[in-house]
Specification:
473 residues, alpha/beta, Rossmann fold, GMP Synthetase, Chain A, domain 3, 8-stranded mixed sheet, 6-stranded antiparallel sheet, 12 helices, 25 strands
Amino acid sequence: MYYKPNRHLDVPSTDLLTWIFGNEDIHDTDRPIYYPLIFLAVIGAGAIFVGSNPGYKELELTSLLETSKPNLIITAPDLLPAIQSVAKICHISTSKILTFAEQDETPKGFRSWTDLFKFGEQDWIRFDDLHTAKSTPACLVTTSGTTGMPKLAVLSHHAWVALNCVIDDPVPKPYDIKRLVFLPMFHTFAAPLSHLAPLREGHATYVMPRFSMSQFVDAVERFKINEIMVVPPMIVNFVSSTSPKAYLKNVRFVWCGGAPLDGAIMKKMYRLLAPNACIAQVYGMTEAGWISTSNFFPERDDSGSVGKLLPNVEAKLINSRGIFVQEAGKRGEICVRGPRLMNGYLGNAKASADSFIDGWLKTGDVGTVDKYGKIFIVDRQKAMRGWQVSPAELEGILRCHPQVADAAVIGVQHDNSEAPKALIVRNTESLTEEDVKAYIAALLVRYKHLDGGVSFVESIPKSPSGKILRKLL
């Protein structure tokens, strides 16, 4: 494989773009461990890694493949039918599809990913100058962006090296780390602690293919796990469960991200952990190259803050006119700057330009900073957090329904989390909430379903320029 640099974001910068399509239902204990190895091999060979959600359906997969234009796809055998269908739509030859299985488990007519071992070894693609490191993409990461439709954020080798450095704990921990990873490895939150940290830090890392409470409890007890990564709904489940929770008594450090965690819930979680445990509520986004803030061990904080800035990250707050907000406790949109920022969105120059102001990435989140430098997320200009759910994507699909005249989507509280809710202007009274939910469920991955409900309205409030006034909804 030969590296052919191209400086334009619209064209992949290598002649091999590899699509890794993981399977969250794999229960083989070895295969999840291969995922980080393939990630490192892909970028080391000079190719570009693209991870995909295994729950994506035809519409979402088609969009991703058309945007990323992969030259090689690695997928689990049980996902082959979906991949074949979409590959045909995108004019991708089946010869470019490898199965994430051993040769004897590979369906007839396809090759196993282990065929890649037949090509021998060559030196890694190497470079050590700053310009090449910053301009050479390592991976494309799916994101809804700060606004609008789903996009592919371009993260460079320089960004990943900077991220690799920030993983190091500024204060050595007084225990041998045994970390359990069960969040999806294609997701930005889990990827660094799955792909980079085990090698960078040299700590034991245990991998679960997907979260299961019974398997989680078994793993924590059997392997004496003391560090875990969670999202707020998991913590809510832990503290509200009526079953015994002694298995958490050895956990010393909890990474929590994806959405703000209520201070009262955090206090309850602390009671379940080791006496000197730390819950690090982190804040970040794909475009910023993982997390930008964290609480640091052994600091304990139950104020609801997302912590302080990580090394080599700058942040500032701006008001609606783009003016720097300096007073402690005063609200403003959070903007970040540092070596881990994305280069832009693949093939979308306008969205890339709109995301930055004078070199600062506009996050779309509204926050405050107290006199101690702790950051609090208090509101957002983005529509939904956690999983990357784009209201514009859902709205576009809903408007394609023959009985829908107009639609808007907002985020609402649902089961201790946040879920999409649709407001529909319908053409006919016969259209029901169940019809609308079933329509979305047939086309989109599970976390985009309308669990927040459906309401029928006479009209969607919009500005004179046609933008939906979501705050009124």
